[in-house]
Each structure stands twice: as C-alpha cells, then as structure tokens.
Amino acid sequence: GTDEVVFGQVGGSILLLCRNVSKEATEVTWFQGDPHSFPPLFSSRVSLPPDVRFSLVNNSSLSITELRVQDEGNYTCKEVLNKTDHEHRVQLRVASKSVLRLNLLPSVLQVPKFIWHRWKNNIKEVQVIFFLPQGLAVGAVTAPSWSLSSVTQSCAPLGLVSDCVLFLLTDPPQSTPKCWAETSSSGLMLQLFCSWPGGYPHPTLHWREEGHDLENSSWVISSTSSSDTHVETLNSSHLSHHKVFTCVGSHVVKQEQPSCTVEIKIPSLESEPPKTCFVGDNVTLTCRVTESTPAARISWLRDITQPEVEIQPGGRFLITQEGNVSRLTIQNCSQGTDGGCYVCKAQNPVGLRELFICLTVKEPVNIVGIVGAVVVLSLLVILTVTGVVLYYNPLLCLRASQPTSTCSAVPRHPDSGDVLVLVDSEDDEEEKGDEE
C-alpha cells in the first residue's frame, strides 16, 4: 500500500510531501511505519523531543537532512479533518553508495547515446525531480521500461519548473569479482562461477578464454546468470591442464572493468610406500591429492583385475575423507583375500590420476617360542663352556660339605690314565704322626 516512492542519498536531504492536505486540517502527523503499530515520528501539534534532522515544511511535509541508511523505509502522513483520517504513504529508499545526477534542460536532454543505452538496459528505477521556485522538490517514478521520451514528458510543465534533474539510483560493487571452479553433479562437466555482489543494478559478467568470449564458443553447454553470479558449464572434452579462464565484470557507474581468473589443473597424487599387515590386525592406506582444480573425486579400487569396481564402505572396509585426503582402513586382515595392490583414483573434468599402493599380509610371529628357544640355547652354551673348563683345568674342585678341605692334584696329560684323588687334610696329618 505505497502511494509514492522517493529516493535519497546518504548524507543528503529529502522532502516527503504529505499530498492533498486540506487547509482545514487541524493536525498532521508523520509515522515511520504503520500508524497502528509505531508511535508518531513528528507531529504538528504534539511536542516531541527535537531532532535537528527532522522538521516540518508548510506544517505538512517532512524534511529529513543528513540522511542515513536506517532512515530507509515506509513513512505515513496522517491528517485529521473533522474527525476523519486521511493517510498518504511514502516509501523512502536511501542509496548507500552514490546517486548519479544529470541536469536535464526542459527542452533538450543532452545525454550521450552509449551512456543512455547502458542505463536503459540496467537501471530499473528512475526518479525525476522538479525544483520549484519556492525550493520544494516533487518526485515522480517512471515505469521499469523507462525511455528518454518518458523523462522528457516528465519535465513538460515548464511554467512551474525552474530545473529538471534525473536521479538514477546506483550502487557500484565495492569489492572485486570472485572466481572459482566446480564439477557438475554428473561429474563430467566443468562449471565456472563468477560472483560480484553488492551493486545496484546488477553488474554484467562474462567469461573469456584465450582472448575470446566463451558465450560464442560451441563447447559451452549452458550459460546461466543468477543475480550477481554468472555460471558457465563447459564440455570437458575441450579442457586441458593449466588452461586459464578469466571473468570480466562491468557496471554502469564504474569505468574500470575488474576481473578474476581460474586456472584448471589435473589432479596430482602424493606417493605412498608399501604397507604390511599381520593376519587379524588393521591397516590404513592413505591417498593425498596435492593439487586439483576443481576439487577431485577420490575413489578406491581393489586392483587392476577389476578396474571399474569401486570399494564400497562397509563390512571390514572403512573409507573416510577429510579435505583432499582419503583413507581406506582394512579391518581383520586376511592373508588369502586382502593381500595385493590397491588403486587410489582421483578424477575431475580435466582428467584423472591413479596411485597404486601394495599391501603384504603376513602371519604373526610366535614370540614365546622364540624366547624359549633362546633360553634353551643359552643353557646349552653355559653347560658346554663349564664342562670344557673343568675338563682342561684339573686344579678346580668344589666341596660343599667340608669348607676346610683342600684340593691336591697332580698335573696330568689329557691322554694319560691318571686319576685325580681328593685327600682329606685330617687324614693326612694322622698319617704323618704314625710315620714319626
């Protein structure tokens, strides 16, 4: 329910007219929003806290200076006449960046044709301001399909108009275009995205490759333009490694044409050393994509005997992926079925790369048996060394029952038949006594 739309610029001034105000009106009140939901903003009778930015002109029209973005919205003028309410609704739009202003003579509009063509095709809302001798401005909005003649007709009442100004509400994007590449849902096409948001009207975006526009290329499958983002879908048969695409943006109020680029790349894989797994244990195979534009799809295959059969997660196989790293975990390794080479396959619309990772499955080692064998061998070595020492050194003897006993022996040749005799020292002394 808006009766009128007016435009302003941040930091500028605007006059909201309360149209068809009767001279008999006893009160004029302005609301920012619905009068039934919001308190009065300014009134001709009620004393409200002063705001130097708001004032009433001719006791009816609302003047706003130093416009802010938050001033944008719907305003309602309400007059009271003989207990009858009359309302006039105005929508205020505030341009946060810039307003292009052209001074147009009432008789001749001196506008370059190429500028007019760009404005006509891009700008959907226009305001024509009439500056009256008393300084008041009256706004009028043309239809979306506005033309030069419609503006000329708006400036027709020469008797009341001292100047006619055309305001074109424009907001050029402040950032630069952003480009990126993705793989289509089918996995066979390349999609180029170019986004340049934040402008009014929407900018013009187009893709180029090797000096010519993609819109004229026969290998463009589809071309989509959605708001501030433009998407090109390309046939992968014409793509190659390190091919560069450029998106160029243009806006009606920006002289420069900023651009961004995308360099497509075939996937590159990091090599993985062979793996070993003992029967009954778990093992993880890792596949890492070092570069790929757009991002590659990673899959695992058993070996080259069935190259088109992918390993599906489930059972003893667990597949996880974090970013550009994919991991295949094999649980409860089996020597009969899990040994061999696995293939990591990384693919995008530019091409594919494969990496072979070989797995060896071994029987677990019997540690207890090995330790027992080592102990037995150690004991045998000790016994053998002890026997050899006792055999070749007859002076060694051991007597546990009599610590005072002595050991006497006569050196003998190893091949002699001599016998080693152990003599008790007490018996030896008795024999000496008898001899005496």
Automatic annotation (TrEMBL):
**Which PROSITE patterns has this protein been placed in?**
IG_LIKE (PS50835)
Quick one: a GO cellular component term? neuron projection
Cite the record's Acidic residues compositional bias ranges.
Answer: 424-436
Highest taxon in the source lineage? Eukaryota
Ranges that cross the membrane: 367-392
Alphabetical keyword list:
Disulfide bond, Immunoglobulin domain, Membrane, Repeat, Signal, Transmembrane, Transmembrane helix
Query: Which residue intervals make up region (Disordered)?
Result: 409-436
| InterPro entries assigned to the protein according to its UniProt record, in alphabetical order | Ig-like_dom (IPR007110), Ig-like_dom_sf (IPR036179), Ig-like_fold (IPR013783), Ig_I-set (IPR013098), Ig_sub (IPR003599), Ig_sub2 (IPR003598), Ig_V-set (IPR013106), Neural/epithelial_adhesion (IPR051170)
The residue ranges of the Ig-like domain are 11-77, 173-263, 267-348
Keyword Signal applies: yes
Residue spans making up a coiled coil are none
What is this protein called in UniProt?
VSI10 protein
Q: Which organism is it from?
A: Neopipo cinnamomea
